[in-house]
Design brief:
The chain has about 475 residues and is α/β, with parallel strands linked by helices. The protein is built from 14 helices and 22 strands. Strands 1, 2, 3, 4, 5, 6 and 17 form a 7-stranded mixed sheet that branches. A 5-stranded parallel sheet has the order 8-15-9-10-11. It has a 5-stranded antiparallel sheet with strand order 18-19-22-21-20, sandwiched between helices. Helix 3 packs antiparallel against helix 4 and helix 3 packs parallel to helix 6. The N and C termini lie far apart (about 65 Å). The site of 1,4-dihydronicotinamide adenine dinucleotide (NAI) has 26 residues, from helix 6, strand 12 and strand 18.
């Protein structure tokens, strides 16, 4: 094999593999280094994809148990077969990682198997499982090595009793009591899965709200709904330690307000307190500077402090989201090929795939207050949306925030059925600089959940029809 390339991408997650495909489309001779057995990174192997599979299957199980009989679908003897559910999840993961393999072949991308590190003179060293090193040259190198789970001081994740999201995606038995440290994305998605499958779930969150960066109206409603579903919350509480004794975990935490120390015993503990960039010492050795958040410092063109080395995805600033990394992968490929790659960071949607789903794009009301921007708001509840009503899924609402003077949409926040899909319309509207009036005058099919968006846009101007 010829050992020199135009581009070597290190890491095959959504940032890396998308970048490699775009490079190849642009006529660049491309290789992608991956140390995992299968392509696709955290997202496909132990993140977004398997969690969405379990969220979907566990929600069907819950509906079969709690709703079908009332809806005239008579079912009896509903039983959970967890190993079959896990088999389904694994099958979905495998088919998608194989899909990336196929795309690599189709685009003539060389998959370099092993751990990549950067040496001087544009060299990438790939160390395979047996420890053998091979050297490759690249005119440009893209670091896309993603992130790893964080823990707390003194808490050792063993992936048996104290688990990260990886362990929580593969329990072989439904834990009787599951304590989740952190009321963020992972905590609430995995908490929902195991609650539906029968665990007694308690989320311990340091702050006084869940998903702190979310619009306050949404997080308040979200908390109310999750509590109604039976998930227990201990907010404003700091976990100080977890011990394992005879297959049980003992979690110590302190109430931030009263300083009272507390202890709970449980079967499993999920540590979901965030993720940190996966930056190996070899990368730092290559002279690549880090920023204040200990992420790789980049220019507007994704260049690191080392010549011809670029970085994208979770290792650089911004939210750790697969689609943000994908867009950066495309942008950097185009920049390397001499085009004008660009990512609009004002319009990165975020979705939490619980039931109901939570989705947002743009600024929150709290951010706009801080920035002294004058705004107006339109809200519309799913309770008044006919499609949500007939489907018996009417928790939640759509909230549109528009600039007071220009009516330009600055942020959209939703909680409700299918909002994870609906947010794409709002991202598109914002990319085109839409006003709430533009959305209100766009014909939306009836009966659909998307009519709640049109009505919220009309509500900005105080003229919703159905509420
Ligand atoms: P997160 O940053 O979303 O939430 C972590 C939470 O842990 C925070 O609310 C924090 O206040 C709390 N915490 C920190 N220390 C604590 C302590 N000592 N005691 C109690 N609480 C404490 O992190 P998470 O959920 O681990 O997710 C990691 C990343 O993965 C996120 O950045 C997210 O973007 C990404 N992700 C995205 C998903 C999606 O797009 N649907 C799904 C899952 C993960």
């Amino acid at each position: 094999m010829d050992n020199s390339f135009d581009v070597i991408v290190i890491g095959s997650g959504p940032g890396g593999y998308v970048c490699a495909i775009r490079c190849s489309q642009l006529g660049l001779k491309t290789a992608c280094v991956e140390s995992r057995k299968t392509l696709g990174g955290t997202c496909l192997n132990v993140g977004c994809i398997p969690s969405k599979s379990l969220l979907n299957l566990s929600e069907t199980y819950r509906k079969a148990q709690k709703e079908f009989n009332n809806q005239g679908i008579e079912v009896s003897n509903i039983k959970l077969n967890l190993s079959k559910m896990m088999y389904n999840k694994n099958k979905s993961v495998l088919s998608l990682t194989k899909g990336v393999e196929f795309l690599f072949k189709k685009n003539k991308i060389i998959h370099l198997k092993g751990k990549g590190s950067i040496a001087k003179n544009n060299t990438v060293i790939v160390t395979d499982d047996s420890g053998k090193n091979s050297n490759f040259k690249a005119k440009s190198i893209v670091i896309s090595t993603g992130s790893v789970s964080s823990s707390l001081p003194g808490i050792k994740i063993d992936e048996k009793t104290i688990v990260s999201s990886t362990g929580a995606l593969s329990f072989n038995k439904v834990p009787k009591e599951l304590i989740i440290i952190g009321g963020g994305y992972i905590g609430l998605e995995m908490g929902s899965v195991w609650k539906r499958l029968g665990s007694n779930v308690t989320v311990i969150e340091f702050l006084d709200s869940i998903i702190p960066e979310m619009d306050k109206d949404i997080s308040t409603e979200f908390l109310k709904i999750l509590k109604k579903q039976g998930i227990n919350f201990r907010l404003s509480s700091k976990v100080t330690g977890v011990k394992v004794a005879k297959d049980q975990a003992i979690v110590d935490f302190t109430d931030n307000k009263s300083a009272k120390k507390m202890r709970i015993q449980c079967t499993k503990v999920l540590v979901a307190v965030g993720r940190k960039p996966n930056i190996s010492s070899d990368i730092i050795k290559a002279g690549i500077e880090l920023d204040d958040e200990k992420k790789i410092k980049i220019s507007k063109k994704f260049e690191t402090s080392a010549k011809n080395i670029y970085a994208i995805g979770d290792v650089i600033k911004g939210p750790m989201l697969a689609h943000k990394a994908e867009d950066e992968g495309i942008a950097v490929a185009e920049i390397i090929a001499g085009q004008a790659g660009h990512v609009n960071y004002n319009v990165i949607p975020a979705v939490i795939y619980t039931s109901p789903e939570v989705a947002s794009v743009g600024k929150t009301e709290e951010q706009l207050k801080k920035e002294n921007v004058k705004y107006k708001i339109g809200k519309f509840p799913f309770l008044a949306n006919s499609r949500a009503k007939v489907n018996n899924e009417y928790d939640g609402f759509v909230k549109i925030i528009a600039e007071k003077k220009t009516d330009r949409v600055l942020g959209v926040h939703m909680i409700g059925p299918h909002t994870g899909e609906m947010i794409a319309e709002m991202a598109l509207a914002m990319e085109f600089g839409a006003s709430s009036e533009d959305i209100a005058r766009t014909c939306h099919a009836h009966p659909t959940h998307t009519e709640a968006i049109k009505e919220a846009a009309m509500a900005v101007d105080k003229r919703p029809i159905h509420f």
